[in-house]
Amino acid sequence: MPEAAEARLVLDCANRLGEGPVWSAAHGALFWTDIHGRRLWSYDPASGQGQSWDAPDRIGCFAFRADGTLVVGFAGHFAFWDPVSGSLRHLHPFEPDQPSTRLNDGRCDRQGRLVAGGMDENEPHAALSAVWRLNPDLSVERLIPGVRISNSLCFAPDGRTLYFTDTPERKIWAHSYDPATGALGERRLFHALPPGPGNPDGSVVDSEGYLWNAEWGAGRVVRYAPDGTPEREVRVPASRTTCPAFGGPDLTTLYVTTAREGLDAGQLAREPQAGGLFAVETGIRGIHEPLFAG
C-alpha cells in the first residue's frame, strides 16, 4: 500500500466509545455517538467547536429525518428522538427475548431504510443477536441472524451491495442487496484480515465505491478497492479506532471516531488523545448519507 496518511485530532472529546459518525449538510456539522457515555456529539469544522446532548439511553446508531429529528437505535429499542426538545417516541423494542444484546451499528440504505445490527454484551460474545431493518412504514424485519458483534454496515453507491462484519470473525462480507425490495441475496467474502492486531469495526463507502474500514486495536483506517484489495491507510494516534465518515462542504474530509473504553492507565498515558475525533483530508469525495424515509 502507499505510505499512510496521518489523521489529526480535531476535538479532544475523550469519548468512552465514540461511534457512528454522520455528516449533516443541513447543519454543516458532523454528528456521532458516545455509546457508553450516553451522549450525542456534534463538531462544526467552521468554528472548531463541539457540542453534546444527554441521551435517554445508550445510542448504538442513528440517522437524520427530513424534519431534522433523528431515528435512533438505542441500546434496547428503536425510537424517534429530538435531542434539542427531548421529545421521544418509542417504536420497537430491540430483541426483547435476548436480554444480553444491544444495538451497536447501523446505517440507512440508499432508499432511506435503517439497517442496524446488534451485539451480545456477555464475554465471550455469543451469536445471539442479528441485523435488522426498520422500514419507512415502521415495520421491522430480520436480515442476518446469529450475530456476535455487528459492524461495518454500509452500502455501495448504487445500493446493490450491503457490507457487514461480525467483528470476532475478522472477515468483511459483501451481500447482494435489491434496492427496490430490500431483499438480501448471496454473500461473498470481501476481505479477511490477516493475522495481527486489529479487528474490523465501522465502515463507510466513498463515491468511487471503495470501502474505508476502521480497525479496532490497530489505530488505523484501511481503504479497500471494490475487489477487497487494500489500497491505502490512514493512521490514527489512538489504537481503538471505531468508525470513519466523510464530511465537510465537499465531503472530502475523512473523520474518525475513537474510544477510551478498556484502556488501562498505562495505555491512556501512551494514548492521551484516545476517545477524540480525528480528521484527514483525502482528496476523495464521500457520499451524502440518506435521510430515514419514515
Can you count the helices? Answer: 1
CATH superfamily, by name, is TolB, C-terminal domain
The tally of beta strands, per DSSP, is: 25
Gyration radius over CA: 17 Å
Principal-axes shape call? globular
Strand order of the largest sheet: 1-22-21-20-19
How many structural domains can be distinguished in the coordinates? 1
CATH architecture: 6 Propeller
CATH-defined topology: Neuraminidase
Could you list the spans in which at least 5 consecutive residues all have pLDDT below 50?
Answer: none
Approximately how much beta-strand content do the residues carry?
over 45%
> What pattern of helices and strands is seen along the backbone?
EEEEEEEEEEEEEEEEEEEEEEEEHE
Structural class: mainly beta
Largest beta-sheet characterization: 5 strands, mixed
Give the helix proportion (percent range).
Answer: under 10%
Question: What is the rounded distance between the termini?
Answer: 42 Å
The CATH class: Mainly Beta
